[in-house]
Specification:
Length: about 150
């Protein structure tokens, strides 16, 4: 399964801030949308970076309350690892695990088309494995995946 399948179910909505916005404004977006990271998009809606709760917590530890007055561009990750719609779910999981981040912007032909989170990836992997178990159960028992026969 690919990231395109995740985006088909999740949608392509993008929540973003501007690099020139304050960290306080980014926090308001994170809180309102109940998300862990937000994209920073330039004037042409191009990906400039990403800022996460972790980035903000580190800034608060370093700068105290004055971190809220900093600009997103001062804290955001600029060198963002991205994926394409064709990237497989296991590949995305590997990128997140080795890179130690929880969100991947999705680019198609250089254009931003979505954002997936570790939650999206884990949910998809669990659904894949449940489907495989049901298929194997059906094959072994000779019933249908909906017959709920315990093997």
């Amino acid at each position: 399964m690919s990231i395109a399948a995740i985006l088909k179910n999740k949608g392509h909505d993008l929540i973003s801030v501007r690099p020139s916005d304050s960290v306080a404004e980014a926090i308001a977006v994170l809180a309102e949308k109940r998300i862990g990271a937000v994209l920073a998009l330039g004037p042409g809606r191009e990906l400039a970076g990403i800022i996460s709760e972790r980035d903000i917590v580190r800034a608060l530890a370093k700068h105290g309350a004055s971190a809220l007055d900093l600009k997103v561009e001062e804290l955001m990750t600029r060198e963002v690892t991205t994926a394409s719609p064709e990237t497989s779910v296991p590949e995305a999981m590997e990128l997140m695990t080795t890179g130690r981040f929880r969100h991947i912007p999705v680019l198609e032909g250089g254009r931003l088309v979505g954002l997936i989170s570790i939650g999206d990836v884990v949910k998809t992997r669990i659904e894949q494995q449940e489907h495989e178990v049901d298929s194997l159960r059906s094959y072994v028992v000779g019933g249908t995946p909906d017959s709920h026969v315990l093997v």
